[in-house]
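Translate sequence into structure tokens.
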Amino acid sequence: MIAPMLSKSTETLPGSKDYIFEIKLDGQRTIAEISKKKLLLYTRNFQNVTDKYPELEVLTSCIRNKSVIVDGEIVALQNGLPSFELLQQRMNLRDIRAVHRAVEDIPVVYYVFDILDSDGKSLLKTPLQERQKLLELAINPCAAVKVLPFFESRDFTLKQAKDFGYEGVVAKKHNSFYFPGQRTDLWQKLKFQLTDSFVIGGWVE
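Result follows.
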């Protein structure tokens, strides 16, 4: 298992061209180890949550490689809107029958934003920009699995995030390696103060 790399909180994101920018999703940070025949989903605390999200079994057919390890966020959707409150209901379910009922009532989407291993080759010391290219090649998006887009303009991303009502923005240095379990200023996050649900389908594809 690989501990996810963490971001430092900041009140001002760097504006340097050395960074790329992503929206910050309010969901469950999850690492996925995927092959054609096996799927393992686990949280930053190494809790196995594979059985909690049976709809994400589709990941085994969404990869173009023989095997990958990816990093992303599980988000609960209701009528196209993400809700952490709904996600908590999924997170807290233990009975397998209740889990399968919840798939219909509280669907989730896995937004992938990094790739850590490809066909058994570690990518932890591969620069972020190269990992992003490899991620696009490795994942075939479907209804329950999306690749989170990134942007090169801080001001554009901040404006779009605020206009759409997203939770915040993450800045990542484009040549950064992936440091499991570490919180460094190579990744920085700025969170907005939000009280309402926010639309995800209109901007993130």
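Note: Confidence is low (pLDDT under 50) at residues 196-205.
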